[in-house]
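Hey, I was hoping to borrow your eyes for a little while. There's a protein on my desk that I can't quite get my head around. The fold is given in discrete form, as structure tokens running alongside the sequence. I'd be grateful if you could look everything over and explain what you see. Here's the protein in full, and shout if anything looks odd to you:
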Amino acid sequence: MADFNNFGASDEDNAEIKKYTLEVEADTDNFESWEKLIRACEGQEGGLNRNSSPQALATLRDVYDRFLLKFPLLFGYWKKYADLEFNISGPESAEMIYERGCASITNCVDLWASYCSFKMETTHTPHLVRELFERAATCVGLDFLSHPFWDKYLEYEERQEAQDKIFAILQRVIHIPMHQYARYFERFRQLAHSRPIKELVPAETLARFRAEVEAESAAYGVVSRPELEVERDIRAKIDTLFYDIFQKTQDETAKRWTYESEVKRPYFHVTELENAQLANWRKYLDFEEGEGDYARTAFLYERCVVTCALYDEFWLRYARWMSAQPGKEEEVRHIYMRAATLFVPISRPGIRLQFAYFEESCGRTGVARDIHEAILMQLPDCVEAIVSWANLERRQNGLDAAIQVYKAQIDSPQVNIFTKAVLVTRWAFLLWKIKGSVDEARTVFLKNVQWYADSRHFWEKWLEFELEQPTNAELEPQHAERVKHIFDELLAKSRISAQAKKELFLVYLTYLQERGGADAMKQFLTIDREIYGPASLAVLDKQPVSKENGVPRTPLDEATRAKAESRYPAYYEYYMEPEPSPQGTASFQ
């Protein structure tokens, strides 16, 4: 970062930049703070130019670099940065910024058109300019609104007076469904009348048309005709062929207009999109996938993940679609990397876990392990990442390796008590379901209840464990005692809310009904009276608070109780079917 104390600006500029820098560092997601910081840097010394102090220029570049690292899809700022570099340092520096911008947002028509326009004005070597235009055509040529780029390409060739290249460009464009397809076709058709016939169609098509014309003439008894007449008839057939192309392009454009007309924001922004916009993108992707054209579908996905970059739903969908295409492993990896490292925040780790599963499936277990570790560096209490990591180790290195992951996290001071409670239950379930040792699993619950009695999840899993143990008529009384012990411990030791305890006791009532012995209804009615009865009879709020080292434990505060009673769903449980006609804005969460 530039030294804000010694960059040669006025004290007023210095103080303003310091102020906005602190705001940005306090909240790097605050777009308005970034904008204010950029304006403050641009306003140094009354406005920066090539004669400004090196310190002021370094400050400006540092801010732009950090801002565009954070928000690489804001094409307008790449253009602005390139213009600043051109005015300050000349075309070479500006070109470097354009290259960085086009690498960050490869399918931006406006940015590529600006870059090509810049290249036209600053480079006098035609093949270098054409190379850039061809790179741009690969990246943005299929865009429904790519006409500014194609217009710029045609303008350049007009300057070069290269009629053959203009015609070749138009031959490509008339096949692309786009907003202004008819304008390009009309120009192509007019130009075709003045071009040599051999340029209009491939040689084999031309030979076929000539043979058809000669056959038609022979059918009327004409053996020989002037070449001009033959060419006229061949051109008529070519014109019909071109009209068929026009009709096909028109039909394809009309199909897509249904969706394109509903795209209200085709660019990236940090604000949320309307639900209707996300619904339109889903339908558009469904349509393009159904058409079966790989290039067009991939291009639409790239457009979508610019506009919807902060919605991990579309990154996951893109990766799933790409993984179904043969030989696209590296492309899938690139999708996950972009989503995980640039756009989807770490607070929503699902896309990163999916990335880890992908890498593991490709045999890159070390990378998968690194992804889990990276999540936990930022989110040490992410239960799902810890469980996922333990399962990775179990699959690759066996049960002991998985248990070691749990033990390490349980011993970690960075992991809170309620996360540890979940990990203990997972450890017990591994011993039960993978190792097949019921006794070892039960011992884990019995030994740890003193530490995790305030976790609702702990009680739910302990109860689930005991209820799923197989029994028979001889063992059922012993089984009933174990279940009763759980609820005795719950009443004696847990500080979770009365409502949470009531919900757990409902399971016990069901157990007594369905599996209880001859005297079970006595116990049933006792619980019914003491847990669900009126305040004068209820025992939940009258239970003495359990003691720790002889000192009474205080009740849980509201915030702690909320954590104590949290549930821990898997990330894919959040991706439900979207509503058919949603209203309002769509949350990033």
Remarks:
- The radius of gyration is 35 Å.
- The longest helix spans residues 227-260.
- Residues 304 and 524 are 58 Å apart (CA to CA).
